[in-house]
Amino acid sequence: MGAERLMHLRTLTLQAIGPFAGRHTVDFDALGQAGLFLLEGPTGSGKSTLIDAIVFALYGKVASSEASEDRLRSAYAADDVESVVDLVFEVPAGIYRVRRTPAYQRAKRRGSGTTTANASVKAWRLPAGTDLDPATLDAVGVPLGNRLDEVGAEIQKAVGLDRTQFVQTIVLPQGEFAHFLRAKPEDRRVLLQKIFGTEVYERLASRLAEMRRESDRASAAARVALSSGASQLVGAARLADDEAADVRQAIDDAVLRGDGLVAAVRSVVAGRTDELDAWAAGARAAAVAADAVRGAARAELDRSTATDALLRRRTTLRTERAALDAAADLNAEAVLQLAAARAAQAVRPLLAGAERAATALDAARKTVTAALDGAPDDIATPPRGTDLRTHVQAAGRSSAEAAGALARLVEVEAGLTSRRRAVRRTRDTVDDLVAALAADDAWFATRPAGRAALLTELEEARARAASAGERASDLAAAIETVAAHTDLAAAERSLAEALAARTAAGAAAAVALDAERDLRAARIAGLAGELAARLDPGDACPVCGSAEHPAKAVLGADHVSAEQVEQAETARAAAESSLRAAAERCSVLEERVGALRGRVGSGTVQDATQRCDEARAALARSRAAETDVARLVPALDDFDAQTRARETERSAAVARLAGERATLEVTLLDLDAAEAEVVVGRGEHPTVVARHAELLERVAASATVLDALVEQDAAQDEAGRRQVELAEGLDAHGFDSADDARAAALDAGALADLDRVVTGYATRLDRVTAGLAEPEIAALADDLVVDVDAAATAEAAARLEAERTAGEARVAEERSAAAAVAGDAVVASATALADALGTAGPVSRLADLTGGGGGDNARNLSLATFVLMRRFEDVVAAANERLLVMSDGRFELVRSDEKEDVRARNTGLAMRVIDHRTEQARDPRTLSGGETFYVSLCLALGMADVVTAEAGGIDLGTLFVDEGFGSLDPHTLDAVLAELGRLRAGGRVVGVVSHVEVLKQSIADRIEIRPTAAGPSTLTVRAG
């Protein structure tokens, strides 16, 4: 693969990210000069943070899908320092720069608490040849956007890989692929599916299986519907048992044949429905004929009934006419009596009016007498020669004028009590206000001293609270020092144990090395005997070539076999691996102990604990002072507010006191004047009210007498007018006197009865005369006779016959229609069944094929598994290109169709390692630690090749190979480094993440990460 197709990382700058509190820049261009660099540092110092920063800059997420971006914000960063990752990379399309900040919590710039700093991104395309100095980059480049979605799309388009593919190809984690190498096929399937995203094939197989179930359910439902439709057809046609059995058998035979199902069912249905249609047509014709006969009989019955009704009506009218002729004289007398009663009825209101007027005149005269009896003597008895009406009017008018003059004094007298009460209330209010003002003056005298005390307490609390930040910093430093003492003690114990383990491992490695050396020497010494033991007479000697063997070497009884040497070699390799692991642990622990000793300084743990307790107590006092400040500030504000409110209340009280005193003075003057006026107004009476009441009574008595006199005059006039009207009315209606009119009068009920008798006679006479003159009755012959019963009997017989034939026709039509509907349903069900059967076949075959079943799938592999198997074969082929080199041609990976056990599903993802020394297939779990490492590395590189090839052939120019080199012997390590050298020759830069000392000595270019005594890590790039 040519270098022009690679993606290269150029520079990485990060600030306040993970354990890095400061700003650090990694120049990958400088590291890439040698093609191989080392990324080393203690565990937890921040090596993985660099990879997370690269992935976050490109995709906005860290490398691990389970990890959160929250860990990107450095816990050591100050609140005003922004967390940022700035990455420059190059692809064939050009040079790109992306700058991202994660979302994190920061302190609010105003007030207390925290707020969220939102994630942001900016991206640029840089001109070719741009100086990548971070200090000058902000001034160059074409912006690509600052929205998360648009920048994400531009970056993925430029790189050519999504985040998952990028992570799988930039970091080759030995541990994960060692697990992949040794995993069961089912576990291997899960990992490959995640990497290659083949869930779509499983979803396709699941959907086809669901479609098969749906088609099976549809077929079953169609069969049930067809059977149900056949039963409905039999019932609708009311077939006999043998006919019903024939229909069902014919339909079942058509279903079994399959071909021509719809046509066969349609033929069976048509045979039955045609018979029923013919029967229904005959029944309808018979019903029509019977209905015509019934119509004729009904018409004859109607004619006979009508003629008989006319004859009976003529007889009734003739009888009623004879009765009317006999009562003619009585009717004439009633007519005369009705006329006289109606005339008396007209005069009756005049008689009643005259009687009412006379009665009213008598009552008015009595009213005048009573009014005079009730009036005072000086009003009821006028002076001699004076008219009564004039005298009464003058007396009433003078009394009314005197009463009007006293009306105002009545109200004044009534209000004297309330005025006296108001004077007392005003005096009480004035006294209360004077007492309240005296109390206010005493309260105000104490306020200045109280406020001064509160202000002094507040200033002291603020002074203590101001040192809270300093006290918190002192406590954090003291706690960190105590924790460092604890960690140092634990690290020193671990270091002592590790040194002892390293000494033991060294002794064991020396013993294993001696044992291997001795066994190899013994085997070489006895090798001639071993070769001689294999020679048969006539065979050529592998050493000298002679076919003669006069003195073959003898194979000793204690001869060392190749298996014993190999076992000793394995034991020696394991002991050396244990020694390297122990040495690495010692190195790590020594670095940690040194760092912790630098952090704790020269003090003891007791000193650090005492300082921690003192700092904690000082912080508690400052925090308590903060609480006091929070309490005292509103208390002082409340104190001042109370003072201002009391001052406002006192000012209002002073103003109110002045007003109340002025009101009291005015009210007293008004009361004195009113009391003097009332004394004058009551005169000889006890009160003004008593005098006023007496005057009102005289006015009322005068008005009563005057009203009675007026009523008497009106009654006299009305009586005279009514007598004149009565005389005129009697003369107009022909009565000589009022007594004659009263004798002719009838009450309303008798008059109405007489009127009804006269009117009823005339109405009956007119009705009978008109009825006998009607043409239908006048035209009837006197001797005409009709037979209604015979006509009714004939009509009933015809009606019964019509109803019978109509019922038969209705039943025939209903059976025909029901059979037609049922037949259509049967044909529709047959059509649905044919469609369902036609659909179910292909779907079922595809579902079997993709689900791992069916006769066409010999190995019972699902579609998803088959696709994964082909991808797996590509990975194995790519891995073997490197494995044959690293293992000196010894090992080769092959895919196997064997199951791990009888219960496992057939995945086609089993793996075997061919050992070309023995030409035997081995289980990958039998490989040694070093063999597992480089085989896993080859798998990882092969996986990266396949993933990038599927992504369009874009490879990453910078790779990171994770830990695992410590398990290799020197020869294999050289082979692995040589293979990594091949990657360098292809234009890639390889970063090795390792603690192996020999790698530190052999790889000069490196990124060194070291934690400081204060906590945050530092980063140093050593290149060139």
From TrEMBL:
Sequence ranges assigned to domain Rad50/SbcC-type AAA in this UniProt record: 12-204
Pfam families, A to Z: AAA_23 (PF13476), SbcC_Walker_B (PF13558)
GO BP term (any one): double-strand break repair
Alphabetically list the UniProt keywords: Coiled coil
Record's keyword annotation contains ATP-binding: no
Where are the annotated coiled coils located? 565-625
Q: Which InterPro entries match?
A: P-loop_NTPase, Rad50/SbcC_AAA
Matching entries from Gene3D superfamilies are given as:
P-loop containing nucleotide triphosphate hydrolases
State any single GO MF term. Answer: ATP hydrolysis activity
Which family does this protein fall into? Belongs to the SMC family. SbcC subfamily.
Q: How does it assemble?
A: Heterodimer of SbcC and SbcD.
Name of the featured protein: Nuclease SbcCD subunit C
Recorded source organism is Cellulomonas xylanilytica
